[in-house]
Design a protein that fits this description.
Mean pLDDT: 96
Distance between the termini: 21 Å
Number of domains: 1
Shape: globular
Strand content: 25-35%
Helix content: 25-40%
Largest sheet: 5 strands, antiparallel
Number of strands: 5
Number of helices: 2
Order of helices and strands: EEEHEEH
Length: 82
């Protein structure tokens, strides 16, 4: 399962169904779930709290994905390191 991490926290991951999830704060999760018409991310049948499912329709907009990934990284580096 490919993922990225910083300070001991994953902030993006790809599940076995080739779905992409990015980690955000609770307020940002709610914003993006509504904006993307998406949901919380699931991996191996479990809901990954903190992660938003990135819809397939967004996967071709690499500039937007890069900004979202950077935003996700910026969020996790504010967390207390593990």
């Amino acid at each position: 399962m490919p993922y990225t991490s910083a300070s001991g926290y994953m902030y993006s991951l790809l599940n076995k169904d080739a779905e992409l999830g990015f980690r955000f704060s609770k307020a940002v999760q709610e914003k993006y779930i509504n904006e993307f018409n998406s949901s919380l991310y699931k991996s191996y049948g479990a809901i990954m709290k903190g992660y938003v499912l990135i819809p397939d329709s967004m996967l071709t907009d690499l500039d937007r994905l890069a900004k979202l990934l950077t935003e996700s990284y910026d969020y996790v580096i504010t967390l207390e390191p593990k």
